[in-house]
Amino acid sequence: MAAKKARTTAAKRTNKAPAAESLVDKVIGLIKWVDNPFKLFTVIIIASMTFLGYMTWESRQVILAAITSHHAEPTLKDEAELVEISQQLFQSLGAELIVIHQVNLMVNTRTTRVALDRTGRNKEIEGTVTSVFNENPNRNRAVVAMLAGEVQCDNLVPSSRVGQWFAKNGVTFVCRGSIPPDVGKFAGYVTVGFKEAPADIIGAKSVLQQASARMAR
User: Fold this and answer.
1) Within this chain, do residues 149 and 179 fall inside the same structural domain, yes or no?
2) What is the dihedral of CA 58, 64, 66, 70, to 10 degrees?
3) Which of 18, 67, 161, 185 has minimal CB crowding within 10 Å?
């Protein structure tokens, strides 16, 4: 009986060994991969957001791909061209406010390049620097959606100075589109604010996607 128990215990230990080795292999593989500050930053930002519950596994994969291909990113057009395209959006979408952010995923920052209302540019808002990902799950979901090539529309939940400006001007609904709209390409994004959700959201998304494609070079 004692011999049988000993064999059973040994078998259990044998069965557990591969799992332990597999975990060790993964840790060693991660350590080998993190061989420069850029990769370390990538691991830290994704691990932090995972811990805080901001994203799913699929979202992490999209973000990782975008960050690691940052050197091949397109750029935004000159501000004069961005303003011209934005003014056309006011006419076609009936928007209240439009902002265009330049993004740097490497350091998790966005810089507001253009901020427009129906009367012109708001220089006090332009130049605002804040984080791309933050504690607002709505914004984080929107960023992940844009990285996946989608135009994301949702109720406004202010989480920055720009968002507060939107709210003060009566905006309750926003649509965001990546610049350019290609999957994994993220030089920046355009946010269009409305006083209420457009009657034709699908049409609004199509117009915004076409405009965002023209905003990149």
Assistant:
1) yes
2) 180
3) 18
